[in-house]
Amino acid sequence: MIHGVASGASAAQATIEAAMRAHEAASKRIEAQMSAAGGGPGALQGAPDAAGDFAKLLGNGLRAANAEVVQVDNLPADILAGKVTDFHEIAARIKQSELTYKFALEVRNKLIDAYRETMRMSV
């Protein structure tokens, strides 16, 4: 009976580690996209205030999503340090980070679609 629990724990640990690697890769992609965009709000110089506000909000949202992914990346160290002991809390954090990342991707996709639609307009 004890051996069955131990093998299940190692499978759960492997799953958590795989999720951590996926989130680390996602975090790196977000950071690369932010740096490629010119660093956020300052990229739209000379634009009206509404565009500046939008860029500021978008930059803040990206930073918040990235911070959440980074927080989950640090979860294995927190587990080893004993800061997090409840498996349900770990699963909830991972799921929340996954949902935040998916939401950020959907926002990005909508922005790309809007840009493409704008580029198709004839003036």
Offer a concise description of the structure.
The protein has 123 residues and is mainly α. The chain has four helices and no strands.
Structural overview:
The chain has 123 residues and is mostly helical. It has one domain (2-120). Helices cover 82% and strands 0% of the residues. It is built from four helices and no strands. The chain has helices spanning 2-36, 49-73, 75-81, 87-120. The protein is elongated, with a radius of gyration of 19 Å.
Q: What fraction strand?
A: under 5%
Using only C-alpha atoms, the radius of gyration works out to 19 Å
Q: How is the main sheet built?
A: none
**Count of alpha/pi helices:** 4
What series of H and E elements makes up the topology? HHHH
SSE arrangement:
Blueprint: H1 2-36, H2 49-73, H3 75-81, H4 87-120
Helix pairs in contact: 1-2, 1-4, 2-4
Descriptive terms for the model:
single chain, 123 residues, mainly alpha, 4 helices, elongated, disordered N terminus
